[in-house]
Structures are given as structure tokens and as C-alpha cells.
Amino acid sequence: MREAERSAGRAGGYCWLEHPSAYGHCTKRPHTDRRHIDFYTGRMSPTDTRGKEWME
Ligand SMILES: [Zn+2]
Q: Taking the model in full, what pTM does it have?
């Protein structure tokens, strides 16, 4: 990922932790728990409410 994209995600108010398998990035608001979610990756349809979750 380009640094500009990384900065854009963080500037957008996201946690933005990279998924360990490079699925995407955590798109939760900045948080202190270990449960990260990429709301935009892993959704099978626009009506799915949650995406890819992982623990760190
Ligand atoms: Zn996160």
C-alpha cells in the first residue's frame, strides 16, 4: 500500500490496521480492543452488515 492511501485511511477516522492476510484494513473507528473489522471486505452483498473480522 502506498503511504498516501494509508494516511488517507487514518485521516478518515479509521483504525486502519492492516489485515494479517492483506484482505484490507480495519474500518472501525479507532479503538483499544483487539477485535478488528473490515466492513468493506468479505461482504457478499451490500446488505451484509459486517465484513471480515480478525483478532490481534
Ligand atoms: Zn481496528
A: 0.68
Q: Distance, CA 55 to ligand 1 centroid (Å)?
A: 9
The single residue listed with the C-alpha cell 474500518 is 27
Say how many residues make up the chain.
56
Q: What is the mean pLDDT of the segment spanning 17-41?
A: 88
- Domain ranges (residues) in the chain: 1-56
Check if the beta carbon of residue 52 is closer than 8 Å to that of residue 44. no
Ligand 1: centre distance to CA 2 (Å): 19
Determine the distance separating the centroid of ligand 1 and the alpha carbon of 45, expressed in angstroms. 22
Q: pLDDT (tens digit, 9 = 90+) per residue, 4-14?
A: 777 777 778 99
Tell me which residue of 4, 36, 42, 2 sits closest to 18, measured CA to CA.
Answer: 36
